[in-house]
C-alpha cells in the first residue's frame, strides 16, 4: 500500500518565500561588505559624522535561479564530456560585442547594479567579529567595584517580594497530590504553607579591568591624510572596546614635542603643529600607569600612531621608554602612517624590541586600517 506524502502549506507560502528572499539578500549584502570592508570603514560619511550617517555599496541585483537556453543556440544533447569543477558556472555568454567583454557597443543587456545602504551598526558587527582584547588577564581591583546579591537558600518565611514562584507551585502540587492519596480535598490552590522565599547573601563583585591609552602624534609633519587615518583607527577602536567590554577606561593623549591629556572630542577634532618627540608621550603614559593604574590590577593597552618622523636624538630615549611600556602592558600597538618616504623612521629603532607583545603596523593606504585593527586587537 502506498504511503501518503503530506506537504505542509508553509512550504508553498508566499510569506515563507519572502522570508527566504530577505535572508538571501541579507547574506549577499554581508558578503559584499566583507569583500569591501577595508574601504568601507574609512568612509568619510561614517567617520566624520561619528557613525550617524549611512554609506552605500554597489552590488549586483539578486535574481531567482532559473534554467535558460544556450545563447549560441546550438543543439546540445546527451552527456557532456567536459570535466566540471565545483562552483563553475555553466551557460555563461562568452561572445564579444554582445554585452560581454571586448570591443563594440554590445547587444545583450548587462547586469543590474544598485546601491545598498550600509549602517554603522552593520559595519561594526562584521568588523568586530574577529577582534578581541589580546592577553586579557583576570586582574582584580584593590577596591571592590560593587556588591552583588547572590540567592543561595529557600525558606518558608520571608518578604512577598522575594517569593520563589517555582518552588511555591511545586510545594502546592506536592501537597495536593498527597491530599488526593488520603481522599481529602485536593482543589488547586496555594496556601500559606506552600509559600517558599528566596534568601541571599551579599558578595563582593570583582571585575576584570582594562585601561586603553590612545596616543596620537599631532605634530606639524602629520598631514591631513595621516591625521585622518589615525583618527579612523581610533574611531573604530573606541567603539569596539565600548561595545565589547563593560569596564574599560580610555585615556586620550596627544603629543608633538610635549605630551598632554586631552578630551575625547579634542582628540578627534583638534590638530597642532611643531616638531616630534615620541618619548614625551611614552613618558606621560608611564606616569599615568604608575600613578593610577598598577599593572597588578589592570590590563593595560597603549596604542600609538604617528608618521614615524621622530627627532633622531630622541630615538634611543623612545626605545628605552617603549621597553618599559611593553613590560607593564598586555599588548602595545605602534603604527606608522607612511605617505612620505622618510630615509628612516622610529619603526626601525623599535624593531629591536623582540617581545611579541609589541604589535607593529604600517599603513600606506586607506584600506590598510582594517589590517592594522586585526593586527593589534586579535
| Number of individual domains | 3
The termini sit apart by: 61 Å
Number of strands: 10
Oligomer class: single chain
Strand order of the largest sheet: 7-6-5-8-9-10
- CATH architecture of the largest domain, by name, is 3-Layer(aba) Sandwich
CATH third-level topology of the largest domain: Rossmann fold
Approximately how much beta-strand content do the residues carry? 15-25%
Largest sheet: 6 strands, mixed
Mean pLDDT across residues: 76
Task: Provide the succession of SSEs.
Answer: HHHEEHEHEEHEEHHEHEHEH
Helix vs. strand class: alpha/beta
The CATH homologous superfamily of the largest domain is called von Willebrand factor, type A domain
Radius of gyration: 32 Å
- Share of helix among residues? 25-40%
What can you tell me about this protein's structure?
- It is a single chain.
- The chain is an alpha/beta fold and 378 residues long.
- It folds into three domains: 13-64 and 114-130, no CATH class; 146-205, no CATH class; 210-376, Rossmann fold (3-Layer(aba) Sandwich).
- Helix content is 33%, strand content 19%.
- It has eleven helices and ten strands.
- The chain has helices spanning 14-35, 37-40, 44-47, 120-127, 165-181, 224-244, 264-269, 279-292, 315-328, 346-350, 369-376, and strands at residues 55-60, 113-118, 146-155, 197-205, 210-217, 248-255, 259-262, 299-306, 332-337, 358-363.
- The strands form three sheets. A six-stranded mixed β-sheet has the order 7-6-5-8-9-10.
- Helix 6 (224-244) packs across helix 11 (369-376) and helix 8 runs parallel beside helix 9.
- The longest helix is centred in the first third of the chain and has 22 residues, at 14-35.
- Residues 5-9 and 93-101 have low confidence and may be disordered.
Amino acid at each position: 500500500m502506498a504511503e501518503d506524502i503530506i506537504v505542509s502549506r508553509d512550504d508553498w507560502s508566499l510569506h515563507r518565500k519572502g522570508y527566504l528572499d530577505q535572508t538571501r539578500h541579507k547574506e549577499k549584502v554581508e558578503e559584499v561588505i566583507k569583500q569591501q570592508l577595508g574601504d568601507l570603514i574609512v568612509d568619510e560619511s561614517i567617520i566624520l559624522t561619528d557613525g550617524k550617517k549611512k554609506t552605500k555599496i554597489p552590488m549586483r541585483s539578486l535574481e531567482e535561479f532559473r534554467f535558460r537556453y544556450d545563447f549560441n543556440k546550438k543543439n546540445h544533447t546527451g552527456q557532456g564530456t567536459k570535466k566540471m569543477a565545483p562552483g563553475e558556472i555553466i551557460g555563461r555568454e562568452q561572445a564579444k560585442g554582445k554585452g560581454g567583454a571586448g570591443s563594440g557597443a554590445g547587444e545583450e543587456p548587462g547586469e543590474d547594479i544598485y546601491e545598498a545602504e550600509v549602517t554603522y551598526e552593520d559595519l561594526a558587527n562584521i568588523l568586530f567579529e574577529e577582534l578581541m582584547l589580546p592577553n586579557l588577564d583576570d586582574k582584580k581591583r584593590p577596591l571592590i567595584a560593587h556588591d552583588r546579591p547572590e540567592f543561595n537558600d529557600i525558606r518558608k518565611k520571608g518578604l512577598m517580594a522575594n517569593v520563589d514562584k517555582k518552588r511555591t507551585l511545586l510545594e502546592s502540587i506536592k501537597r495536593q497530590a498527597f491530599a488526593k492519596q488520603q481522599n481529602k480535598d485536593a482543589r488547586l490552590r496555594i496556601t500559606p504553607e506552600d509559600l517558599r522565599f528566596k534568601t541571599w547573601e551579599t558578595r563582593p563583585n570583582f571585575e576584570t579591568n582594562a585601561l586603553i591609552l590612545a596616543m596620537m602624534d599631532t605634530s606639524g609633519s602629520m598631514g591631513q591624510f595621516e591625521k585622518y587615518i589615525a583618527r579612523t583607527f581610533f574611531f573604530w577602536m573606541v567603539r569596539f572596546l565600548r561595545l565589547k567590554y563593560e569596564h574599560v577606561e580610555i585615556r586620550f593623549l596627544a603629543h608633538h614635542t610635549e605630551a598632554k591629556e586631552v578630551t575625547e572630542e579634542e582628540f578627534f577634532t583638534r590638530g597642532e603643529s611643531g616638531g616630534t618627540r615620541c618619548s614625551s608621550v611614552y613618558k606621560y603614559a608611564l606616569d599615568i600607569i604608575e600613578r593610577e593604574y598598577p599593572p597588578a590590577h589592570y590590563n593595560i593597552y597603549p596604542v600609538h600612531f604617528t608618521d614615524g618622523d621622530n627627532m633622531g636624538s630622541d630615538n634611543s630615549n623612545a626605545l628605552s621608554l617603549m621597553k618599559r611600556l611593553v613590560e607593564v602592558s598586555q599588548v602595545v600597538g605602534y603604527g606608522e602612517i607612511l605617505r612620505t618616504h622618510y630615509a628612516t623612521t622610529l619603526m626601525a629603532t623599535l624593531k629591536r624590541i623582540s617581545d611579541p607583545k609589541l604589535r607593529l603596523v604600517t599603513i600606506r593606504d586607506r584600506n590598510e586600517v582594517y589590517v592594522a585593527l586585526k593586527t593589534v586587537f586579535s
